[in-house]
UniProtKB/TrEMBL annotation:
Annotated protein name in UniProt: Uracil-DNA glycosylase
InterPro entries: UDG_fam1, Ura-DNA_Glyclase_AS, Uracil-DNA_glycosylase-like, Uracil-DNA_glycosylase-like_sf
EC code: 3.2.2.27
Species: Gaetbulibacter jejuensis
SMART domains given in the database record: UDG, UreE_C
Domain Uracil-DNA glycosylase-like: 50-211
N-terminal signal peptide: none
Length: 221
C-alpha cells in the first residue's frame, strides 16, 4: 500500500507508519485490493492528506467509511467524482448549504474544492470492499485516523470539527475543547435528516463565523 500524503503530514504521522498495527493494516489492504474490488482506487486512499496540507487544516469533517458503489469514492469523505450522481447524504449537505449560506446547488459532488481551502475530509476507515459497507472496519484504520485527529488537536488551534451523527460524535473525546470548536448534529443521511436532525443546523455559516473570529479566511462552500 503506497502512502501518498503531502509531506507536511509526515512529521506528525511518520511514527504511525512504523507501528505493528499499521504494518498489519497495510498487508490486509494490499491483499483485499489484490483479491476483490475495493474503493477508492488504491492511488486515492490517502487523497484527504494530499489535497489538504497539515498547515492549512481549518475544518475537519469526519465520515465513517467510503462509498462502496462503482466510481463514487475518491478518498474524501462525502465526496464523489465529477459526473457521478450525488448520493443521498451529499444531496442533503448541499441542500443545507443552499439554505444556510445561499450558495446555489452545485453540479459536481467532488469536494476537492473544499479540501484545497483547508477542509480535511476524513473517513474513519479509508477503504471498503465493493457493495459491502463497513467491510474494512476494525482492521486498524480507526487507530490511524484517531491518531490524525489527536495530532491536529494537539498541534493546532481554532480548528472547527464537524461531527455529524452518532459515530462521528464519539470522536469528540479525542479533541481538546479548550482550543478547538466542535459542532455536532444528526447525520445528513435521509434517515436522520428526514427526522429533523440535520436540516437547519447552519454548520456552514457557523463554521465561517468561527473562522472569521480568529482571522481565518472563510470557506467557500
Amino acid at each position: 500500500m503506497d502512502v501518498n500524503i503531502h509531506p507536511s503530514w509526515k512529521p506528525y504521522l511518520q511514527e504511525e507508519f512504523s507501528q505493528p498495527y499499521f504494518t498489519e493494516l497495510a498487508s490486509f489492504v494490499k491483499d483485499a485490493y489484490a483479491t476483490s474490488t475495493c474503493y477508492p482506487p488504491a492511488k486515492q486512499i490517502f487523497s484527504a492528506f494530499e489535497h489538504c496540507t497539515f498547515n492549512e487544516v481549518k475544518v475537519v469533517i469526519i465520515g465513517q467509511d467510503p462509498y462502496h458503489g462503482p466510481g463514487q469514492a475518491n478518498g474524501l469523505c462525502f465526496s464523489v467524482n465529477d459526473g457521478i450522481p450525488h448520493p443521498p447524504s451529499l444531496i442533503n449537505i448541499f441542500k443545507e448549504i443552499e439554505t444556510d449560506v445561499n450558495t446555489p446547488y452545485p453540479k459536481s459532488g467532488n469536494l476537492e474544492r473544499w479540501a484545497k481551502q483547508g477542509v480535511l475530509l476524513l473517513n474513519a476507515t479509508l477503504t471498503v470492499k465493493a457493495h459491502t459497507a463497513g467491510s474494512h472496519q476494525k482492521k486498524g484504520w480507526e487507530t490511524f485516523t484517531d491518531a490524525v485527529i489527536q495530532s491536529i488537536s494537539k498541534e493546532k488551534e481554532n480548528v472547527v470539527f464537524l461531527l455529524w451523527g452518532g459515530f462521528a460524535k464519539k470522536k469528540a473525546s479525542l479533541i481538546d475543547k479548550t482550543k478547538h470548536h466542535i459542532l455536532t448534529s444528526g447525520h445528513p443521511s435521509p434517515l436522520s435528516a428526514n427526522r429533523g436532525y440535520w436540516f437547519g443546523n447552519k454548520h456552514f455559516s457557523k463554521t465561517n463565523s468561527l473562522l472569521e473570529q480568529v482571522g481565518f479566511v472563510p470557506i467557500v462552500w
